[in-house]
Here is the input.
Amino acid sequence: MFDVITKWCSFRAFQHQEQRLLEEREAGLEVCGDTYEVVESFYYLGDMLGAEGGAAVTSRVRSGWKKFRELAPFLTSKAPPLKMKGQVYTACVRSSMVYGCETWPTRVGHIQQMERAEMRMIRWMCGVSLADRLSSEELRRRVGVEGIGIVLRRHRLRWFGHVERKEDVNWVKRCTNVIVGGPTPVGRPRKTWQSSVSDDMRLLGVNARDATDRAKWRRAIGRKQANPEQTGQRP
Here is the structure.
């Protein structure tokens, strides 16, 4: 009986929270006398920004498929080598899919969504189907590309390293420590960018202090350090 009452109270609190958010969305947000519409997602600088990051992932997957279909005569042709297809895919298709991913609070579902889209493209490039029973690792090895989840993690940690090496007074670094006030919604907290970075660092066994050393951080996140003799830069 106690469990039933607890669940009922939680459900009523959730309904009250949803009703309050709906009323705030309809009323709008007032800033300096101007009222702005409250939305769950919007376009900014050519990218879709969502309250939980899902809108951005869906928009990027759609952009990736658009670019893939533009290059389909080459990517799906049997004439070019698979390694060459993989290089073109990485430079043109994947780059459009991961645009702006440095600031995404990605959840497991978001990564799976991008991996499913990528594997469909790779199977198309290799001329195989699910009926051929080939693993994703084998197909990636044939075209010479790494998993998009690894790419997302590296881009996010690379951007985190840039931010960590900035001065404490820098407004970008200060924004990463901003705590938004207000009542906490019922249920599990939303995935944040900081929690995504913490999960990435825990997976690689690194911490924020390692980011202060640029060369060490590059090696830790799997990005090779450029050779000064080849780039023409001083060591």
Observations:
- The beta strands are 29-31, 34-36, 41-44, 47-50.
